């Protein structure tokens, strides 16, 4: 069962291979690590939800997956991990279907960590164990004239929807993420639209009993890109 | 990367080191600053400034290199010894070098707290390295072509200037070790302009990798010198850009210590070369990574 959700940016500047002598965004990595550490503290299983790269030019794994793996490695906690990649431009329906699948599998995670019926853990009666969703998702990269995609004034309204949805998670706010328009988000370089819609569908599929409350939520845009670092936890 | 390591004071460095040695003149007549730090207060201000600017070493000198009024050992000591002690008291961790060829001055400044003897006149006083050995200090061996201290080169020719530099520096370095200076505290310096015309200094710069390959830490003293001025036909005061170009080339060849007047600009050039060489990460990277 999904007990925790942690949302982090997918910025490559969080990766060790891109670190300069001083941090480009001071404190960002530390906040991400702290949020992830809190969110996985009791997890038996972690599902990383990330988008494919929009402009892949290498054979390396997607940036989102690498950022997630780096943050998880910093926690030094034992749990199993699976990666769910969603196409950066996946239609909303595809995100919803993927989210429901994630929720269903989370409800069947055994004490061994992997979902029942998967090749990792075929069958068994084990009780479902706590699962954390680690969602790698950014808002618009067009929030200022110096932003990677230059300024698009529409970015702030769309980012506002994302932030309010996350902050309103306790009042079923995440469902509003499903209203994000894929084409508009593509224009605004919202790299996290598809993973956020997978998240919304996964949490929604779990029903009211699995409602999540906001434990922490920090928002910043040091480079004209919206970064959200948030930890949502199931109410006990 | 070679396996070179060397020690200055209590610090240990490897082949990737690119250290800034800031010149602090206790002279009324040096060619570049023309006595700007002759007064003790001004000299202290200069030390504080270069430390703030990121200098790794200060090189304190009491006699200008060019010909001029003779300065005896006692007067040289008066200019530098108490000053070294005061700098040591105010900056306990700063590496202090003293530019002198005299063993008696060397002994006095090492007793006052200096770490390095910069023998800018190529072993003119053979006892200097023995003093360095006695104090476990570092020593800089320089190539001057055997000229008398404080003389200008006049119609000097070499069959192969780099070969002469190599032969002289290896001989001096080996002798320093033989009298007890730690192998990892011996620095070599081809001494641009000293015993050299501009053609010589330019060739030494172009072939600096041959000196790096000798396996000793390499110091270069390029700052605002005549070989820069003659290369660009510019007077003292307008040679910074040329100095920095020579600095970049020397850094790319692998020199380790840079004796300079301008610390900020040199530090930037050296850091840039270190980044380009892959020896230092960029300071801060966000372009394309946000």
Automatic annotation (TrEMBL), chain A:
<protein>
    <recommendedName>
        <fullName>Extradiol ring-cleavage dioxygenase class III enzyme subunit B domain-containing protein</fullName>
    </recommendedName>
</protein>
From TrEMBL, chain B:
<comment type="subunit">
    <text>Homodimer.</text>
</comment>
<keyword id="KW-0808">Transferase</keyword>
<protein>
    <recommendedName>
        <fullName>Dihydropteroate synthase</fullName>
        <ecNumber>2.5.1.15</ecNumber>
    </recommendedName>
</protein>
<comment type="function">
    <text>Has very low affinity for the DHPS substrate 6-hydroxymethyl-7,8-dihydropterin-pyrophosphate, but can bind the inhibitor dapsone. Seems to lack dihydropteroate synthase activity, and does probably not function in folate metabolism.</text>
</comment>
<dbReference type="Pfam" id="PF00809">
    <property type="entry name" value="Pterin_bind"/>
</dbReference>
<dbReference type="InterPro" id="IPR011005">
    <property type="entry name" value="Dihydropteroate_synth-like_sf"/>
</dbReference>
<comment type="pathway">
    <text>Cofactor biosynthesis; tetrahydrofolate biosynthesis; 7,8-dihydrofolate from 2-amino-4-hydroxy-6-hydroxymethyl-7,8-dihydropteridine diphosphate and 4-aminobenzoate: step 1/2.</text>
</comment>
<dbReference type="GO" id="GO:0046654">
    <property type="term" value="P:tetrahydrofolate biosynthetic process"/>
</dbReference>
<dbReference type="GO" id="GO:0005829">
    <property type="term" value="C:cytosol"/>
</dbReference>
<feature type="domain" description="Pterin-binding">
    <location>
        <begin position="18"/>
        <end position="271"/>
    </location>
</feature>
<dbReference type="GO" id="GO:0046872">
    <property type="term" value="F:metal ion binding"/>
</dbReference>
<dbReference type="GO" id="GO:0046656">
    <property type="term" value="P:folic acid biosynthetic process"/>
</dbReference>
<dbReference type="InterPro" id="IPR006390">
    <property type="entry name" value="DHP_synth_dom"/>
</dbReference>
<comment type="function">
    <text>Catalyzes the condensation of para-aminobenzoate (pABA) with 6-hydroxymethyl-7,8-dihydropterin diphosphate (DHPt-PP) to form 7,8-dihydropteroate (H2Pte), the immediate precursor of folate derivatives.</text>
</comment>
<dbReference type="InterPro" id="IPR045031">
    <property type="entry name" value="DHP_synth-like"/>
</dbReference>
<keyword id="KW-0289">Folate biosynthesis</keyword>
<dbReference type="GO" id="GO:0004156">
    <property type="term" value="F:dihydropteroate synthase activity"/>
</dbReference>
<keyword id="KW-0479">Metal-binding</keyword>
<keyword id="KW-0460">Magnesium</keyword>
<dbReference type="InterPro" id="IPR000489">
    <property type="entry name" value="Pterin-binding_dom"/>
</dbReference>
<comment type="similarity">
    <text>Belongs to the DHPS family.</text>
</comment>
């Amino acid at each position: 069962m999904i007990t925790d959700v942690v949302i982090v940016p997918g910025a490559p500047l969080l990766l060790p291979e891109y670190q300069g002598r001083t941090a480009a965004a001071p404190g960002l990595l530390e906040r991400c690590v702290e949020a992830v550490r809190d969110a996985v503290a009791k997890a038996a299983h972690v599902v990383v939800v990330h988008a494919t790269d929009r402009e892949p030019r290498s054979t390396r794994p997607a940036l989102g997956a690498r950022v997630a793996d780096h943050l998880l490695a910093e926690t030094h906690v034992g749990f199993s991990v699976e990666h769910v990649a969603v196409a950066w431009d996946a239609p909303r329906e595809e995100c919803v279907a993927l989210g429901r699948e994630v929720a269903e599998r989370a409800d069947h995670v055994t004490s061994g960590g992997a979902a029942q019926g998967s090749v990792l853990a075929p069958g068994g009666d084990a009780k479902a164990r706590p699962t954390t969703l680690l969602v790698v998702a950014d808002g618009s990269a067009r929030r200022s004239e110096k932003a990677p995609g230059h300024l698009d004034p529409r970015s702030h309204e769309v980012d506002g929807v994302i932030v309010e949805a996350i902050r309103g998670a306790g009042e079923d706010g995440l469902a509003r993420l499903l209203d994000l328009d894929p084409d508009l988000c593509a224009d605004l370089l919202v790299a996290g639209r598809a993973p956020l819609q997978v998240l919304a569908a996964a949490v929604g599929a779990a029903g009211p009993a699995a409602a999540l409350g906001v434990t922490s939520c920090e928002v910043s845009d040091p480079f004209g890109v919206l970064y959200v670092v948030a930890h949502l936890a199931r109410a006990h | 990367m070679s396996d070179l390591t060397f020690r200055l004071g209590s610090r240990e460095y490897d082949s990737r080191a690119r250290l800034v040695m800031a010149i602090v003149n206790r002279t009324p007549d040096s060619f570049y600053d023309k006595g700007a730090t002759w007064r003790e207060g001004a000299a202290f201000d200069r030390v504080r400034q270069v430390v703030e600017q990121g200098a790794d070493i200060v090189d304190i000198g009491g006699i200008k290199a060019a010909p001029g009024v003779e300065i005896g050992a006692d007067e040289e000591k008066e200019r530098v010894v108490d000053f070294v002690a005061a700098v040591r008291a105010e900056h306990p961790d700063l590496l202090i070098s003293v530019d002198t060829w005299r063993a008696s001055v060397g002994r006095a400044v090492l007793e006052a707290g200096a770490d390095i003897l910069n023998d800018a006149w190529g072993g003119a006083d053979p006892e200097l390295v023995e003093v360095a050995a006695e104090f476990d200090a570092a020593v800089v061996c320089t190539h001057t072509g055997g000229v008398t201290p404080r003389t200008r080169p006049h119609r000097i020719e070499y069959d192969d200037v780099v070969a002469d530099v190599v032969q002289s520096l290896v001989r001096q370095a080996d002798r320093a070790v033989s009298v007890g200076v730690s192998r990892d505290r011996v620095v070599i310096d081809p001494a641009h302009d000293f015993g050299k015309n501009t053609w010589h200094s330019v060739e030494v710069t172009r072939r600096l990798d041959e000196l790096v390959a000798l396996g000793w830490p390499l110091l270069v003293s390029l700052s605002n010198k005549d070989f820069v001025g003659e290369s660009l036909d510019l007077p003292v005061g307008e040679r910074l850009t040329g100095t920095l170009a020579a600095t970049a080339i020397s850094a790319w060849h692998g020199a380790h210590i840079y004796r300079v007047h301008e610390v900020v600009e040199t530090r930037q050039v050296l850091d840039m070369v270190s980044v380009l060489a892959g020896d230092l990460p960029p300071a801060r990277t966000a372009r394309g990574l946000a």
